[in-house]
Amino acid sequence: MSDRQDDIYAHQHDVVEAFRFDEQVVNVFPDMIRRSVPGYPTIISMIGYLAERYAQPGSHCYDLGCSLGAASLSMRDNIPHADCKIIALDNSQAMVEKCRVLLLDQAGKSKVDVKLGDIRQQEIKNASVVVLNFTLQFIDRIDRDLLIQKIYDGLKPGGILILSEKLAFSDGRVHDMQTDMYYNFKRLNGYSEMEISQKRNALENVLTPDTLEVHQQRLRQSGFASCDVWFQCFNFCSMVAIKV
Ligand SMILES: C[S@@+](CC[C@H](N)C(=O)[O-])C[C@H]1O[C@@H](n2cnc3c(N)ncnc32)[C@H](O)[C@@H]1O
Ligand SMILES: O=C(O)C(=O)C[C@]1(C(=O)O)C=C[C@@H](O)C=C1
């Protein structure tokens, strides 16, 4: 993968435009996400581990909002069945184009189909593993319930949804403390105050985090029997929800 350094917000922007997954972001994305999401490499590795355990023979595994396909690659490297199909989907043309190139020459048992499209329109069927790795937070709140319900309905019994998200906290003091530690994580990873502040402005109203309670209520309402946090670092977490 490209290891170009993310310097998008390193100079003063006259106007900070709303964050988009365009070509400029695609070019630095591996560095950006690694330095911006605490635990990202661990989460990607564990998606492979969970897929190895939960992918069912002859089923589909979905990577919704796949970006450059890191979660798909991790699943492909770990799923032991040759007849599983991985469907990776993103609505950013630039992401999908680069993802296809990155997945071209990689071997693996399962085939990965990289598609351009909106995950709200994607049919989910015969699924054993569905991944939403930091994607739901970019979907309009009004569409989130329907999307999670569609995923639940498309999962086979015993199937799982892996849902990773940036969290909000209902207690203001906890929210401020977690956010403060998160910004310090970014500082430790070399981002300046200007980069942190311009990125925060760019993500305003684009990335809209829910609280853990809202996520868990939505998952339970859709029918998931359990939804547990298996990873959390500051305001970033990953849940696994199981359909019995
Ligand atoms: C933070 S990135 C996801 C990172 C990726 N899952 C990973 O593990 O590396 C969010 C991605 O979701 C995509 N996205 C946002 N809204 C979408 C939608 N409605 N349909 C499809 N993709 C969407 C963006 O284009 C972006 O690539
Ligand atoms: O940089 C931030 O502040 C973030 O919230 C991180 C985050 C994400 O969670 O998706 C935001 C946009 C980029 O895709 C990479 C990471």
Automatic annotation (TrEMBL):
Pfam families: Methyltransf_25. GO terms for molecular function: carboxyl- or carbamoyltransferase activity; S-adenosyl-L-methionine binding. S-adenosyl-L-methionine binds at Y40, G65, C66, S67, D90, N91, D118, I119, N133, R200. InterPro entries: CmoA (IPR005271), Methyltransf_25 (IPR041698), SAM-dependent_MTases_sf (IPR029063). Its EC number is 2.1.3.-. It catalyses: prephenate + S-adenosyl-L-methionine = carboxy-S-adenosyl-L-methionine + 3-phenylpyruvate + H2O. One of its GO terms (biological process) is tRNA wobble uridine modification. Keywords: S-adenosyl-L-methionine, Transferase. It comes from the Bacteria. Residues 63-159 form the Methyltransferase domain. It is an enzyme of class 2 (transferase). Catalyzes the conversion of S-adenosyl-L-methionine (SAM) to carboxy-S-adenosyl-L-methionine (Cx-SAM). Homodimer. Belongs to the class I-like SAM-binding methyltransferase superfamily. Cx-SAM synthase family. This is Carboxy-S-adenosyl-L-methionine synthase. It comes from Pelagibaculum spongiae. The lineage of its organism: Bacteria, Pseudomonadati, Pseudomonadota, Gammaproteobacteria, Oceanospirillales. The gene is cmoA.
